[in-house]
Amino acid sequence: MITLRLTTAINLIAMTVLAATVIACSEPHSQTTPQTTTDTQANIQAEPQPITIKSIYWSDGDSGRLNGSLKFRLNDIDAPETGGVGAAVGGAKCEAERAKGYESKAWAVNFTKDKPLKITNTHGQDRYERLIIDLSSNEQDVGQSGIQAGHYQSWPHDGKKSLAPRPIWCP
Q1: Element (H, E) at 131
Q2: Cα(143)–Cα(133) distance, rounded to whole angstroms?
Q3: 107 Cβ contact partners less than 8 Å away, ≥ 6 residues apart
Q4: pTM for the full model?
Q5: pLDDT digits (tens, 9 = 90+) for 60-103
Q6: Phi/psi zone of residue 32: left (φ > 0), alpha (ψ -120 to 50 degrees), beta?
Q7: Which residues face 63 on adjacent strands?
Q8: Mean pLDDT of 34-51
Q9: How open is the CA angle 83-88-90, to the nearest 5 degrees?
Q10: CA distance 57 to 68
Q11: Of 4 and 124, more confident
Q12: Among 2, 28, 25, 21, residue whose Cα is nearest residue 117
């Protein structure tokens, strides 16, 4: 139990340091690389260095991976599920939701493709240890743009706790 808590705490600290570094980036596609040092304490106390968001992979309409390894979920946003109807985790409630889920994912891919991406804020981790973020693409908020386009719905949270029922995607 103590080992699990320690591992979770270490992961949270590492994600927070990485997120602070990403947020500090004023030009997300610059070629600046982080400064390296063998002194871990100096790394934590030093000014965050900009990093480049080189790639984004969308698992579904509201979550994915940045640079191949940083798992994320959009803050206070819900997109329809793409998993099979009745799946234990990530499953759609009906085929209409699943179809909307694929449309939502395609929209997210197109909205962020070949555009400058920037994490504008972080909100800790969710229960799946994904970093909760506000993300901009070409200076436009991805979540709000997705709501306006009809692919997302607002789903407010306070940390890991939802403040409203999950949006309904089935007729």
Answers
A1: strand 131-137
A2: 10
A3: 61, 146, 149, 151
A4: 0.71
A5: 999 999 999 999 999 999 999 998 887 877 789 999 999 999 99
A6: beta
A7: 73
A8: 39
A9: 35
A10: 7
A11: 124
A12: 28
